[in-house]
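Working notes for the structural subgroup meeting. M.R. asked for a predicted model of this chain before we commit to crystallization trials. I am recording the input and output together here so anyone reviewing the notebook later can reproduce the run.

Input as submitted:
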Amino acid sequence: MITGAGDFGLDDLNLVRRRFPDRRVTLDGDVITVWPAHPPAQ
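Returned structure, recorded in token form:
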């Protein structure tokens, strides 16, 4: 969990995206969500 003093910005979003390069990361005001990875195709 990351706690900020206010809404997150694009710099914060890009920081999290670099931390989880293979995951979908979205920003909604004061919430950054890292979505679960999809299981590999069989």
